Amino acid sequence: MIQQKNGVLSFYFQSNLLLRIFLGLVLGAICGIVFQNASGAIEFLKPFGDLFVRLLKMIMVPVIVCTLIVGTSSISPSHLGKVGVKIILFYMFTSLFSIIIGLSVGSVLSPGLGLELAQGAGVAKEANAPTLVEILLAIIPTNPFESIAKGDVLPTICFCIFFGIALAFSRDSKKEEISKAADTVFAFFEGMSDVMFRIVGWIMQYAPIGVFALIFIVFSKNGAQAFGPLLSVTVSVYVGLVLQVVLVYCVICLIFKLSPIIFLKKVRKPMITAFVTRSSGATIPVSMETLEKDMGVPRSIFGFTIPVGATLNMDGTTIYLGVCAIFIANIVGVPLDFSAQLTIVLTAVLASIGTAGVPGAGAIMLLMVLESVGLKVEAGSVVAVAYGMILGIDAILDMGRTSMNVVGDVAGSLVVGKMEGKLDEKVWQS
Prior knowledge:
The protein is an all-alpha fold. 77% of the residues lie in helices and 0% in strands. Helix 4 packs antiparallel against helix 15 and helix 9 runs parallel beside helix 18.
């Protein structure tokens, strides 16, 4: 294979992706302010931004289907004993609180409120608010293939979870022909997931260009007033992350008679590692080492809970989803009532299953959440422009949310170890 050692393309693809996206945001903002109301430049760049939005929408449903099926079917039912049930309930419980915290912080701090972006074609309109019963019933698809084809998020998620659980039981069957056939199905979806990850990687390589185009249009039409909302949404996300630690993890530690001070002190290593690397997967060895050597949790516990957490637990990301959904709704001028916020809660918690390892998972999940409440990310719409603004600062937000995801994994492993009576108190207190 011949590699080009020098040149613009070589430098582009070898440099850090998140840094490139952030530079796309900065350069887009600067150029947009310099070239105010440059209609020619806006018309030229608009297709590049629209292309990025269409690429993301193209991959959304395939990513949901493949990652959810693989994520749920990869946990053997024979291993879902007391430890499995407890850790899954813990992750679902903390994810529920994290999205509530995210929505609450977004509602109180109201990032983006008052910013009026110049509108393009296809601006999302507020849908008629469904009742609670309608929301819950709508989760169950009458035709899953129709839901997948239409891109209906919640019904698709529901069907894929059912399919994945059934596949897990089939893989665990004592009948060899059934387990062998199920393993073949699992291998197919696992291979499909790898293909989807590769496509997502290609799309994200284009992200800096798409972000530059979207942000240029924002600042060219709206000027420097767009800077404030980006700062406000960043502050709001990090306030939510701090509240998650204080109100959820520390309180849980107190409930199980574990010192929150000791926990915060000992969780620093995996937390900082995740913050710097922005990768839950890369932090798994550090988390395991911390649990065993610093906290006294046995391998029989964290050997199961940490890998499951890397698949199921996304507390930091769900906080991000809540804040960003409020931010975009404020910009569009579409208030999110109780039913819409409940839909966000359900979508965020269910979508967190299996998507933690997906490159650009936060951006894809935000797209899913917005679609689920009727904020359609259509090319040229205000929703798409606001979404591009969020993606432009995704590097900053991703550090915090990934760090919080890992802290949740460690907290869950610690609590389950304590509940099972297998926590080494001497190591914990040392």
